[in-house]
Amino acid sequence: MSGRPRKFDDSAVIKAAMDVFWSNGYDGASAEVLCERTGLGRGSLYNAFGNKQKLYEIALRRYQEQGLQAQADILNAPGSVKERLLALMRWGIEDDLGPNRGRGCMALFAVLDRAGKDPVIAEISRVYVIKLEQVLCHLFTVGQRNGEVSSDSSALELARAFLSSYYGLRVLGQSMPDREFLEDVIKGTLARF
């Protein structure tokens, strides 16, 4: 005997849960709010996705997939290496200062809030950074081959240095939401490459 078929769209439920976690963090996302925003009862929600932790992991992975695709599209677009790095950093600023200001980057805040306490979230976050690092490594390798970027450091070292500045910029976007300040950070960062 099989259970009743699902009468909801998994993708829509995950998107709604992602929005709750993104806006409220893990601890601030109550079961009541998750149920309200997804339109599911607690039993249906947890039967479908396990528990709050599992739902958070699924939502975080979805957020990261979307974010990685958006960032890869920017980094793989036409233009010089510096133009693409600039576009990525400005994309981050727009996200941090835009209409959803205050939410910041869910992937980054998952690391700051949960990774130290939760090895699954730490691993999800590590894999995400490695994927972004690979896209950046490719960009720097191409830049070194065509002479746009110095070969004094390896492409991997350059990618990691950029990641450090990029994530620092995203944190600063929350604590110093001043466009001129953040543009100065970008200029200083790009001067190194």
Short description:
The chain contains 9 helices and no strands. It is mainly alpha-helical and 193 residues long.
Order of helices and strands: HHHHHHHHH
Strand content: under 5%
* SS elements, strand count: 0
Radius of gyration (CA) equals 19 Å
Low-confidence stretches: 1-5
The secondary structure category is mainly alpha
Quaternary structure of the protein: single chain
How would the global form be characterised?
elongated
DNA-binding region: 30-49
Domain HTH tetR-type: 7-67
Organism: Citrobacter enshiensis
Pfam family, one: TetR_N
List the helices and strands and how they pair.
Layout: H1 10-28, H2 31-38, H3 42-49, H4 52-75, H5 81-97, H6 106-115, H7 119-145, H8 155-175, H9 179-190
Domain HTH tetR-type: 7-67
Keywords: DNA-binding, Transcription, Transcription regulation
Organism: Citrobacter enshiensis
Describe this structure in words.
The protein is an all-alpha fold. It has a domain at 61-190: Tetracycline Repressor, domain 2 (Orthogonal Bundle), CATH 1.10.357.10. The chain has nine helices and no strands. The protein has helices at residues 10-28, 31-38, 42-49, 52-75, 81-97, 106-115, 119-145, 155-175, 179-190. Helix 4 runs parallel beside helix 7. It is elongated. The N and C termini lie far apart (63 Å). Mean pLDDT is 92; it is low at 1-5. Keywords: DNA-binding, Transcription, Transcription regulation. Residues 30-49 bind DNA. Residues 7-67 form the HTH tetR-type domain. Pfam families: TetR_N. InterPro entries: DNA-bd_HTH_TetR-type_CS, Homeodomain-like_sf, HTH_TetR, Tet_transcr_reg_TetR-rel_C_sf.
